[in-house]
């Protein structure tokens, strides 16, 4: 016999919120332990190279017993953030020409006209491709670490040995202008610095204008040895407008003019005895970007960037024998252009060799031969004496071999130190193979010295032979360096398997406990045995859907297609429900609407609403382009600008009607209605102020773009506070349970919705319509089922459908479970300046608004469908409280199972090629999503109980 309803209710009121808190604590501990074991950074050695460092006698031959001498006097580094490879390379190198190509023709002309002193490189970055990690990797010469993504908004100073430290330590004067990330990474390394804030992605010009102001005047001064100019306009234009956009093309054309001025200045001052007689210019990107302007992952578009090198002082023609000519094509002006490929990992070692400073202790890159050869200073025969080689190419190869010798000794020194101090180090068999390669290369070096410079003619014959001695020596050193770099890429991260195992075990135990709690809850508060037996098939079906989705995370392809997988499973549940209704002869309009809704969601995910529509204008290759051809592009653009405003007005009318019926208390009703009305009017005003159809000046434009969003945020925060006060002071306790929860839910949803819609942008009305229609279909179908079966428990299929719809909305709104899927522009809606807490909060709301916040706050509406069929107040109160708690528990269990399977998949795939580009970001998003879900469930259990 079941316990009395009052006993069940009192027990639940006391215990369930505490149990939800306990679940949150267990999940937090489990995720902390697993993250600590999985996302460990590589061991950073607190050691620095010194000018006095010398390899022990006998380890290396006499010819490479010291650091390389300097080859350039001054270095100008122009960093164009997010510089794609096809921004610089001629369009003739690609199958199809795009509007953003061939805009930087000054670099292409130099590469074609001055082959011996100018070169375009395809530079390959190592993921993750966020700016912080790329700058850190470029300066330290090491591989980036995944955990540093978390520091991208507040970069810590780099303490690991790096070229900036070596420059200062060896008396080089450094001037920096542009992205203030450099100041955060190297706060005390610049003689002069002109930093500008870098995180306002809506601002395309402030940083660039600051660099322009100081760049050319600095080139005429003699108070620096290394000049760094970091532009950000292309990166920001990509984030906001995408690659195929007018602002992007304008930025590239502006950069072309700036570089023309830089090159002319360097050329004019490069006469003998001039300031830039022996200066090297590098124009480079830190990473690439996708067509949507995103970066952070490991796709080809993100890791392929450009590097252009030019020396005003021309090396001898023999440099062409060093440069790779395998990738050459005719440029736009009819002249041949050749492009080389290099790893960004080699940047630090190459720059160190050119400037004559010690290599950073942790650098594992190789001095790139082509970039090293483009400096005329590397062709000066520094080996004076009777054994001096007279052939230019042989002299250069001798010098480069000595540089590689030092390069290999430095890397081998690092390997030995790392293996001795690291917890795990490298596998012994791989380490032995590396050691053998190094020993073989050094053993052959003495023989190379004896045979290289026997006579000029003899040397030339050797160089032209099948296996020249110096070439073999270079290949031996290169083999050692590249083999170790490959080993480091495949096995760099040290996984703490104990912490990972304990964390995974806690997650599995928490899922088992949650499942047992759900079964026990159904058993205690169930009135009918038949109802208990009829719920089992639904639980089995719901569990099958969750398990299939979670198991798909084993494949990187299915992770990329997670939105489509969720939509497929949602459609499967919808079709199953429709088939079940047709068998009973009761097919309803809700089934048809739900099916049509799934189709629209599928197409929404396919075209990626916000990703494909970053601006009002329609591009020719967009999916809507065919429709625009029928009605005209201008008409289509006008509709795209007006339709969201009309839609938000219609949606506001529907929501206001619903709120007026749902809320009965006068003050609360008028406050919520007026606040909601003002919020939606502000949203419409904000969108209208950004269109090109209306001319705005002065205060009107300021209100639409800045004050209107802030007003929406303020009203939302005030509404949440008033709702909490109403709940704390129990001003709704005299109402019936269904009315009380309806009021509290309506107020909470009306508080959060405008802010989320504002951040989503003009796609918001479409998303809101899908969300409301989906909720209506799920509730109506659940009501009909419960009328038939008289179930007094929450329907697990309805809860899983609501969860799957939330996942679909996450991807439909343009989000992805990768760091390049974060919509950084949303964090600056209403604000022009960066503040880490404010922008971090807005970015979090935008990321998790439609996938976590709104779905969890809406669960009571799904749980309360039973009250329409219940007449007794006491039973009504029990059923509503039971169903609300069950729905929250089911939703939390679904999220926990998904996160647990994600952890298992990440653990299995921890050595996968895409672990840092795909599996690890997926884990981070799911772990944060689980903790956010648990937190919201805890608050909801207290708020709605």
UniProtKB/TrEMBL annotation:
Superkingdom, natural source: Eukaryota
A Gene Ontology cellular-component term: endoplasmic reticulum membrane
An annotated Gene Ontology molecular function: transferase activity
Major localization listed first in the record, in broad terms: endoplasmic reticulum
Membrane topology category: Multi-pass membrane protein
InterPro entries, A to Z: Alkaline_phosphatase_core_sf (IPR017850), Phosphodiest/P_Trfase (IPR002591), PIG-O_N (IPR037675), PIGO/GPI13 (IPR039524)
Pathway listed: Glycolipid biosynthesis; glycosylphosphatidylinositol-anchor biosynthesis
Keywords: Endoplasmic reticulum, Glycoprotein, GPI-anchor biosynthesis, Membrane, Transferase, Transmembrane, Transmembrane helix
Pfam families: Phosphodiest (PF01663)
Biological process, per Gene Ontology: GPI anchor biosynthetic process
Family to which the UniProt record says this protein belongs: Belongs to the PIGG/PIGN/PIGO family. PIGO subfamily.
Protein name: GPI ethanolamine phosphate transferase 3
């Amino acid at each position: 016999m079941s316990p009395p309803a009052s006993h069940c209710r009192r027990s639940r009121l006391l215990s369930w919120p505490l149990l939800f808190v306990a679940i949150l604590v267990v999940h937090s501990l489990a995720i902390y332990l697993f993250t600590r074991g999985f996302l460990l950074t590589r061991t950073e050695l607190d050691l620095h190279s010194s000018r006095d460092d010398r390899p022990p006698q006998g380890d290396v031959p006499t010819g490479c017993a010291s650091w390389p001498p300097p080859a350039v006097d001054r270095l100008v580094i122009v960093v164009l953030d997010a510089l794609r490879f096809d921004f610089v390379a001629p369009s003739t190198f690609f199958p199809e020409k795009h509007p953003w190509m061939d805009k930087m023709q000054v670099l292409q002309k130099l590469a074609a006209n001055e082959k011996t002193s100018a070169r375009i490189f395809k530079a390959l970055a190592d993921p993750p491709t966020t700016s912080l990690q790329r700058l850190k990797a470029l300066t330290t010469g090491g591989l980036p670490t995944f955990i540093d993504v978390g520091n991208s908004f507040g970069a810590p100073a780099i303490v690991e040995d790096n070229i900036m430290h070596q420059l200062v330590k060896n008396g080089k004067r450094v001037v920096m202008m542009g992205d203030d990330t450099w100041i955060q990474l190297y706060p005390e390394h610049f003689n002069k610095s002109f930093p500008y804030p870098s995180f306002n992605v809506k601002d395309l010009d402030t940083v660039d204008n600051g660099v322009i102001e100081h760049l050319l005047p600095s080139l005429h001064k003699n108070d620096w040895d290394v000049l760094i100019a970091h532009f950000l306009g292309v990166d920001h234009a990509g984030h906001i407008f995408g690659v195929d956009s007018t602002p992007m093309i304008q930025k590239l054309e502006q950069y072309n003019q700036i570089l023309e001025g830089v090159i002319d200045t360097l050329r004019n001052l490069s006469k003998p005895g001039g300031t830039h007689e022996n200066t090297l210019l590098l124009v480079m990107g830190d990473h690439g970007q996708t067509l949507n302007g995103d970066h952070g992952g490991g796709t080809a578009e993100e890791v392929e960037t450009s590097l252009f090198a030019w020396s005003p002082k021309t090396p001898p023609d023999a440099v062409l024998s060093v440069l790779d000519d395998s990738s050459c094509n005719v440029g736009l002006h009819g002249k041949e252009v050749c492009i080389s490929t290099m790893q960004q990992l080699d940047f630090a070692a190459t720059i160190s060799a050119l400037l004559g400073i010690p290599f950073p202790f942790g650098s594992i890159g190789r001095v790139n031969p082509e970039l090293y050869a483009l400096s005329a200073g590397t062709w000066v025969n520094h080996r004076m004496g009777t054994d001096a080689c007279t052939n230019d190419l042989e002299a250069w190869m001798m010098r480069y071999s000595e540089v590689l010798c030092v390069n290999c000794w430095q890397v081998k020194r690092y390997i030995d130190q790392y293996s001795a101090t690291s917890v795990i180090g490298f596998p012994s068999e791989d380490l032995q193979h590396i050691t053998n390669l190094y020993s073989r290369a050094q053993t052959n070096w003495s023989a190379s010295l004896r045979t290289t410079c026997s006579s000029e003619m003899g040397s030339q014959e050797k160089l032209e032979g099948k296996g020249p001695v110096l070439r073999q020596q270079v290949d031996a050193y290169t083999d050692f360096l590249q083999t170790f770099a490959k080993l480091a890429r495949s096995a760099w991260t040290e996984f703490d398997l104990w912490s990972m195992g304990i964390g995974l075990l806690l997650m599995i135990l928490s899922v088992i406990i949650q499942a047992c709690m759900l079964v026990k809850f159904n058993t205690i508060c169930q009135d009918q045995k038949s109802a208990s037996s009829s719920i089992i098939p639904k639980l089995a079906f719901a569990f099958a859907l969750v398990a299939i989705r979670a198991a798909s995370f084993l494949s990187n392809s299915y992770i990329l297609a997670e939105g489509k997988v969720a939509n497929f499973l949602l459609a499967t549940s919808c079709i199953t429900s429709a088939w079940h209704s047709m068998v009973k002869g009761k097919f309803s309009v809700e089934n048809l609407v739900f099916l049509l809704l799934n189709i629209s969601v599928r197409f929404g995910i396919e075209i990626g609403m916000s990703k494909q529509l970053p601006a009002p204008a329609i591009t020719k290759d967009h999916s809507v382009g065919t429709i625009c051809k029928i009605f005209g592009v201008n008409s289509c653009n006008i509709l795209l600008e007006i339709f969201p405003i009309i839609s938000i007005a219609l949606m506001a009318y529907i929501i206001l009607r619903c709120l007026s019926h749902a809320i009965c208390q006068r003050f609360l009703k008028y406050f919520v209605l007026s606040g909601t009305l003002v919020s939606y009017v502000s949203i419409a005003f904000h969108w209208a102020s950004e269109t090109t159809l209306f001319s705005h000046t002065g205060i009107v434009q300021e209100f639409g773009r800045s004050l209107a969003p802030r007003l929406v945020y303020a009203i939302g925060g005030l509404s949440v506070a008033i709702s909490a006060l109403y709940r704390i002071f129990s001003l709704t306790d005299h109402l019936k349970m269904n009315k009380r929860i309806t009021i509290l839910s309506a107020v909470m949803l009306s508080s959060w919705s405008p802010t989320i819609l504002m951040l989503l942008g003009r796609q918001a009305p479409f998303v809101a319509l899908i969300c409301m229609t989906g909720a209506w279909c799920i509730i109506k179908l659940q009501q009909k089922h419960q009328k038939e079966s008289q179930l007094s428990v929450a329907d697990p299929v309805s809860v899983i459908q609501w969860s799957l719809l939330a996942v679909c909305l996450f991807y439909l709104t343009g989000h992805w479970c990768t760091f390049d899927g974060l919509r950084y522009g949303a964090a600056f809606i209403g604000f022009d300046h960066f503040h880490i807490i404010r922008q971090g909060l807005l970015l979090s709301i935008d990321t998790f608004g439609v996938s976590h916040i709104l779905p969890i706050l809406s669960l009571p509406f799904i749980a309360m469908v039973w009250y329409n069929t219940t007449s007794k107040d006491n039973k009504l109160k029990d059923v509503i409280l039971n169903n609300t708690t069950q729905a929250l528990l089911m939703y939390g269990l679904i999220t926990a199972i998904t996160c647990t399977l994600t952890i298992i998949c990440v653990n299995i795939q921890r050595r996968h090629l895409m672990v840092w580009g795909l599996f690890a970001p997926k884990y981070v998003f799911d772990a944060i999503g689980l903790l956010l879900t648990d937190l919201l469930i805890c608050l909801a259990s207290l708020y709605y109980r």
